[in-house]
Structure formats: C-alpha cells, structure tokens
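Lecture notes, unit on protein representations.

Consider one protein chain, 108 amino acids long.
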Amino acid sequence: MAISLTNAAINRIKDYSGKSQNEEISLRIGVKKTGCNGYAYVINYSDGIKDDDEIFIDHDIKIIVDKLSLELIDGTEVDFYKEGLNEAFRFRNPNVAGECGCGESFSI
C-alpha cells in the first residue's frame, strides 16, 4: 500500500507549506462523499495523526491517510500542474472506475 508524489507536487507542497527547509511537512490526503460520481479528493496540511491513520514518507514529506480513504486511493500518485492561470493537484488513482465530466469526483 502506498501513496506517492511527483516532483511537481513535492515542489508545490514544500514551496507553500510555510515551513523552513528543516521542518517536517505533514500532508493529509483522503476522500469525502460528494459530487455526481460519489467521492472527491481532500488534501490539506496536517498537524496530527489519529489511531486509524497510515503514514507514508515521500521526499521528506509525511503523507497521512485514514484507513477508510486508503482503501479507495491505495496506489495513487499525486501530481501538480500549472497551465496559464489554472493550477491544481491531480490524482492518478488506479482504482477509479469513472470520473464526472468536470473532474471533481470519481467512483470506484
């Protein structure tokens, strides 16, 4: 089981974390029920770890995922893109069966 980050995602997370080079960065990734297809990704900085969390380390970034979300996003690669004025994290989830037209939600 694993969640990974591309170099573009790592650079974005580190640049905008507000932490110095030596401080640990913790990122919480999960899903919530929403949208026309069932689930949407949630990504935020985190200061705490819960009992049901799984932890992955990628390039000195601690990735925290609750066990229920991990069942849906195991194997996901998180990328970041910037195109003109548009920028966002993208999730390459091998478990996805379908996505809505706007790309905001997915189904398993």
